Amino acid sequence: MRYVMHEMRTSRNVFKDSINGLKHFEAGVLNFKHYQNVLIETSRSNISNKVIEKNMLAIIDHHSVDTYPWKIAYIPTNNLNWQSRPVFQSYVGYTPWLDKKNEFFFSSSKSPQFIVWDIEN
């Protein structure tokens, strides 16, 4: 009986998600300009904590930059010159072959001059 109740709740959630999906589709198509503005504001809010201090940007200047381990939002937020490593999302570099790709890149002349390092607490 418990399992059946769980199935019923899951079915309701799927239906609710479908309705919400249709509402988002409607908002995006019929009220595109408003939807676009909402997305722009949401993006600005999401990247607001990715702004690098001006004194650091002055040091970086136009030089090449990579981010570590994966937060590439720093690049467009600060208009940085991105020189990405081959496996730029470090959490997917879990095999020796992928790890070597990044090692060779950082040992090469293509390596970025700066790395923006961000580890969340």
Task: Give a description of the structure.
The protein is mainly alpha-helical and 121 residues long. It is 57% helix and 9% strand. The chain has five helices and three strands; from the N terminus they run H-H-H-E-H-E-H-E. It has helices at residues 2-30, 32-47, 54-60, 74-78, 96-107, and strands at 64-68, 81-82, 114-117. It has a three-stranded parallel β-sheet, with no helix packed on it. Helix 1 (2-30) packs across helix 2 (32-47). It is extended and about 50 Å long. Mean pLDDT is 81; it is low at 1-11.
Give the percentage of residues in beta strands: 5-15%
Report, as a whole number of angstroms, the end-to-end distance: 42 Å
The count of DSSP E runs of length 2 or more, i.e. the number of strands, is 3
Mean pLDDT: 81
User: Uncertain segments of ≥5 residues (pLDDT<50)?
Assistant: 1-11
The helix content, as a percent range, equals: 55-70%
Please give the domain count: 2
